[in-house]
Amino acid sequence: MQIDQNTVVSIHYTLTNTEGNVMDSSVGQQPLAYLHGASNIIPGLENALTGKAVGDTLQVTVEPEQAYGEVRDEMIQSVDRANFSGVDEIEIGMQFMAQTPWGEQPVTVVGVEGDSITLDGNHPLAGQVLTFDVEIVEVRAATDAEIEAGTPQ
């Protein structure tokens, strides 16, 4: 069976950045299962997998606009430390959930200067070219419940 709309696909993958550093991998773990065509994975990877079958291996390089987008400056802002009541120590790299104009989303602390905390709401991989080494492990028709839920069950 080939990968197409409304198939459940299981893959093993290794994600690297342009420097060749491994950012994530499913190797040695359970494969990643997703519902093809339901936007469960980034568009550039999903598009490259269409038409592939079990046993296929491929390397896919995905530009930012087909991955997590470009870095958006409006998603980086400074806020007053008073917004973090109950948090004694704020350090670069910490993540919080924040109410933003785009809804509730995770933000990462990227700067701390006195009472000014700089937060970045961009996805941590925004602006990056990503390379996936992929092995297709399983492809099957999705159930009606999976199609309705938009995710494998």
Description:
The protein folds into two domains: 7-68 and 125-149, Chitinase A, domain 3 (Roll), CATH 3.10.50; 73-120, Thrombin, subunit H (Beta Barrel), CATH 2.40.10. Helix content is 8%, strand content 41%. The strands form two sheets. Strands 1, 2, 3, 4 and 9 form a five-stranded antiparallel beta sheet that branches. Strands 5-8-7-6 form a four-stranded antiparallel beta sheet, with no helix packed on it. By secondary structure, it is mainly beta.
Condensed summary:
The protein is mostly beta strands and 153 residues long. It folds into 2 domains: 7-68 and 125-149, Chitinase A, domain 3 (Roll), CATH 3.10.50; 73-120, Thrombin, subunit H. It has helices at residues 43-49, 144-149, and strands spanning 7-16, 22-25, 32-35, 57-62, 76-80, 95-100, 103-113, 116-120, 130-141.
Give the total of domains: 2
Number of helices: 2
Form type: elongated
Any idea what the radius of gyration is?
Answer: 19 Å
Point out poorly predicted stretches.
none
Question: Which sequence of SSEs, written as H and E, runs from N to C?
Answer: EEEHEEEEEEH
The helicity comes to under 10%
Q: What tags apply to this protein structure?
A:
four-stranded antiparallel sheet, rotamase, 2 helices, cytoplasm, PPIase_dom_sf, mainly beta, 2 domains, 9 strands, PPIase_FKBP_dom, Chitinase A, domain 3, 153 residues, five-stranded antiparallel sheet, peptidyl-prolyl cis-trans isomerase activity, Thrombin, subunit H, single chain
